[in-house]
Amino acid sequence: MRTAVVIDRSSTVPLSRQIYDFWRLGILSGRFSGGERVPSTREVATALDLSRGTIAQAYDQLVSEGYFQTTHGSGTFVCGQLPEALLNAPASAGRRAGPNAAAPLSSFGKRLQSDIPYVRKESGHLWLSHWGPDLNLFPLEVWHRLHARSLRSLGPDALDYTEHVSGYAPLREEIAKYVSRSRAVVCTPDQVIVVNGSQQGLDLCARLLLEPGDEVALENPCYSGARRIFEACGARLRPVPVDREGIDCSRLVTTARLAYVTPAHQFPTGVALSLRRRLELIAWARQHGAVIIEDDYDSEYRYSGAPTPALQGLVSEVPIIYCGTFSKVMFPGLRVGYLIVPRPMVVAFTRAKWLVDRHTPLHQQAALRDFMKEGHLERHIRRMRRIYGLRRAALVEALNVHFGDTATVLGEAAGMHAYVRFDDPDVPARARRNKVQLREVEPYYIGKAPVSDFLLGFSTLTERGLRDGVRLISAAGRRP
Question: What pTM does this model have?
């Protein structure tokens, strides 16, 4: 044999793999050239005192990957063109390196390029601009155990397309029980459509309910994620002012096809839609044949009085689509939300869900079902409701101490953030100087926004951190 193949019989690496590595690395390093003849399997087997099958296994792998080529009657040779070379596209003569050509964007796509970016925490800053679940307090060990159990129990069928297009049936049953018990929603499991977060739920609503040019009534200020979805579908937005009772129903346009509202805890002002306004909204929808989307994004967290029942449970003859999510009560990385749709719409929503992504991951749905059925969800909500309530109270107390009448907290004692109106125009400058991040309200308004209003998140900071943050943005607060 002309080529000495080196192997290590004491190695744990299989012999066939050693032979494969010897030739592949030799070819890539240039030791063996393209077109060079390779010793036959018989020659190598005799020289190394191995079976021909071991050599043939290595050669077959090299042939299949494009390092060797065989010619009938002539033998085996090193390929002239290596597979790695095929991964590199040939350079175009006369062209300079530069940015990729951009396809023309739609008007909506162009607007998104200058849209408000996601707010990230700045290094060394106190993050009063953020709200969401305190992930350090989530029972992660319980979730890991349930998720592992779901992976073992579902079997290989869960790896394929599933028949549970509208959601894992046992989870849908638990969701129907949960919203009936906690939110007075009237539904059966077949009306529940499980989606990849409430954002996908809103997207499905817009696709199925709106034609380009249709009018959508929505609160002003409002959740910008919903606003962008309606704009993407070509809807014409009809903003409706919000006051201390919620959306002003007397300002609703008669031509709107759909109304999007957050009645339990209006986003971002935090007010609750009064019973009088709820009845007015329902009467408007009934009279004009409109649909109502009720986004109930964080109603679990209310710190004074009994929870307000859902709008959906008040009426059956007006189409109300109820949208819920587990992102706020559990963790944002769990992209599982749900819609509760009128029964005549179930087929259309199910087929639309299948069209966009087939189904929401089944293993997470199964784990979530067990998390709910075994009582972990409601125990976690009770615990976090108490903790968030104390944190909100600390924030409000600090505002009273440091600002007095020059700071007003709007809305209900609920949710994970507070809408605060300051009379002090120097608050933003002091916040920047003392490295405290605040969230302005401008992105949530259609039209002119108040310049002295801010959203202060309290759910992820300790009571001490909240007091420090308010002190730092007050006239007396100065960081050393």
Answer: 0.79
